[in-house]
Amino acid sequence: MKFDRNTILGLVILGALFFGYFYYTNQEQMALNKARAREQFVKDSIARVNGPKKDTLAIRRDSLTSDSATRAINAGTFQQSAGGTEQLVTLENDLIRVTFTTKGGQPKMVELKKYKGPDSSLVKLAGSNFNKLSYTINTAANRSAQTGDLFFSKIDSVTNADKSKTISFTLQSSDSASAGTAITHSYTIKPDDYMIGLDVKMNGADKLLTQGIMNLNWQYAAAQQESDVSFEKQNTQIGYVEDGEFDYHTIGRRSSKTFDKNVKWVGVRQRFFFSLIVAKDNFASGKMDWTVPADSMKTIVESTTNLRVQFPVASSATQSFSLYYGPSDYHLLRKYDLQLDKLVNLGQGMYAFVRPLNRFVILPIFDFMKSIGGSYGIAILLLTLFIRLLISPLTYSSYLSGAKMKALRPEIATLKAKFGEDQQAMSMEQMKLFREAGVNPLGGCIPALLQIPIFFALYSFFNSQIGLRGASFLWANDLSAFDEVIKWGDVPVLSFLLGHHLSMFTITAVITSFLISLYSMSMTPDQNNPMLKYMPYIFPVFMLFIFNRLPSALTWYYTVSNLITLALQFVIQNYIIDHDKILVQIAENRKKPKAKSKWAERMEQMQEQQKRMKDAQQKNKK
After folding, report:
1. Cα gap 42→47, rounded to integer Å
2. Of the N and C termini of the chain, which has fewer Cβ atoms inside 10 Å?
3. How does strand 245-250 pair with strand 154-159?
4. What does each C-alpha distance from 342 to 154, 245, 329 come to in angstroms?
5. Mean pLDDT in residue range 524-539
6. What phi and psi values does residue 275 have, to the nearest 5 degrees?
7. In a 10 Å sphere around its CB, with 0-12 CB exposed, 13-18 middle and 19+ buried, how is residue 228 labelled?
8. What whole-number distance in Å separates Cα of residue 121 and Cα of residue 117?
9. Tens digits of residue pLDDT in 113-148
10. Predicted confidence band at 1 (pLDDT cuts at 50, 70, 90)?
11. pLDDT at residue number 449
12. Where exactly are the structural domains of the chain?
């Protein structure tokens, strides 16, 4: 990379995109903070209204007794199921362990056997009391109850011929007049699969549901799974497929979504984990609301989804659903053919243009490099080598352009001495000099501009690559997060600029960038503009504040890329490019007749017009 005027232009554009991205993420963080403040305000208001009063214990006891009596009355023909002792039953395969509860006949907790949380225990999804899968049923004339409040006392389990396992929970009417009315929830887990099948079978469906409509309530609380809760919230989204089209919302940007058309699935994707509910025959409509709790709650988002399901209006009816609790893995989600993979952030929003690059180039190459490299750190190194090899023709062209610019230094210096402060005349003559010598002044900035989409593609890729989670390399314990080699407490200015740590991979990236700047400036014509002169030294410092919060995988990639750049610069400039031959080539180019391009003609016309206007202004002043 050569830091001539046009290379600086490329770097300025890159810097502008950096600022744009981090402004965008900062806006998301502000939205998250507002959502948390709003949620806290509501909770505080409720707490004040429901604060301690006289005889609180007695009131609470009376309230519980009243609630129990109300539930028994509302349970109608299922009165015997209104109370009971909760039983827990476990079903598992090699990937997940699901704990079911007889209260509501629903999952109570899902553990992922191949992933560990911040406390080194297995990752737990849907493990809080907030989580619920329930719907309203008619229990008697003018009475209704939520299945989540009733106890499914009958439990059956079976191992199927395909080695899948099914467990069933049945809610049976205790009224003789309604004999045979029952609801059965059957859950099936296949070997090596995160998707859980759910069949809801109703005997007496025409009585249990009004006009065959089930109003399904799915509540889900996404527990914190990563060390940096703020960054995890920035990378958490609500996703769905409505009327066959995929869409998503970042949790801090809005707090609800109404579905007016058929919905195939809705779900919550954290940075690396995904939970969702799928309807085999689609949900007819619905609404999803979510709140973002305070960071201290260690919960990323709490969502409540109400979905309308149309059952056949018959005495016996069944609807099938699926529940997914597992990793947000692109390859895995793509196998389900439900557009689930689109929620994996390989490029979204203003950076959606890098998604094809990630999907068709970076991802397959990285998978291959991982297969031959063994560790993820080595795979990143090999990926970097491949990318640099891919753009090497442009890199060589850039260095060749820089060598030609260096060969013209004496003549550029002569022009500066001749025209002094007259920058317009200097620019016009310099353009003529470049054209006569056959030098492309834009040749140095092309590789810098080309690396912009590559950088943002890798930023999205490394943020979403679950394989990096917990993968150690050198001093980094987790390549999906920054490496905290140096830590400090809450130091006001320092914490605002850098956070509470200093990443070693960030330091290596900044140092190698600074060395590139030093070497490049030694090969570049002198700059009169102080901004252009010092920009190459400012840019590495600018990187320090940005890169310190990024995943180690990305800063490791940048370090390797910089080391390759330094090696290429030295080898190409000293052993490949023949500077004497360049001088001969420039001399030959000057002998050839020059045909001006339309762009060059327009540029010269514009410069000449500006020069005439400037001369006229100076004459008027005299």
Report:
1. 9
2. C
3. unpaired
4. 40, 11, 11
5. 60
6. -130, 135
7. middle
8. 6
9. 999 988 889 999 998 999 999 999 998 888 899 999
10. very low
11. 72
12. 5-28+353-605, 84-344
Cα separation, 253 vs 195, in Å, equals: 29
Q: Compute and round to an integer the Cα radius of gyration of the chain.
A: 33
Binned at pLDDT 50, 70 and 90, residue 2 comes out as very low
Name the band, by pLDDT with cuts 50, 70 and 90, for residue 284. very high
Distance CA 426, CA 487 (A): 51
Range with the lowest mean pLDDT among 84-88, 226-230, 317-321, 606-610?
Answer: 606-610
- What type of residue sits at position 42? V
* Amino acid present at 345: N
- Going by C-beta distance under 8 Å and a sequence separation of 6 or more, which residues neighbour residue 293? 36, 39, 299, 301, 302
8 A C-beta contact, residue 88 and residue 100 = yes
pLDDT in tens, 433-477: 776 666 666 666 666 677 778 888 988 899 899 999 989 999 998
d(CA 577, CA 553): 34
3-state SS, residue 290: strand
- Which residues, listed in sequence order, are joined to residue 207 by a DSSP beta bridge? none
DSSP strand pairing (316-327 vs 486-487):
unpaired
Q: Which are the contacts of 622, defined by CB distance < 8 A and separation ≥ 6?
A: none
Per-residue tokens: 175? 């009224």
CB atoms under 10 Å from CB of 327, counted, come to 20
Residue 274 near residue 333 (C-beta atoms within 8 A): yes
Please provide the distance, in angstroms rounded to a whole number, between the alpha carbons at the two ends of the chain.
46
Distance CA 540, CA 521 (A): 14
Residues in a beta bridge with 143: 140
| CA pseudo-torsion sign 402, 403, 406, 408 | negative
Residues in the chain: 622
- For tokens 């984990």, the residue is 273
C-alpha distances in angstroms, 169 versus 101, 157, 191, 198, 462?
9, 9, 21, 11, 42
Report pLDDT for 325. 96
What is the amino acid identity at position 361? Answer: V
Q: Which fold has domain 84-344?
A: Beta-galactosidase; Chain A, domain 5 (2.70.98)
**Contact by Cβ (8 Å): 130, 219:** yes
Residues in Cβ contact with 481 at an 8 Å cutoff, skipping those fewer than 6 apart: 226, 227, 228, 231, 551, 552
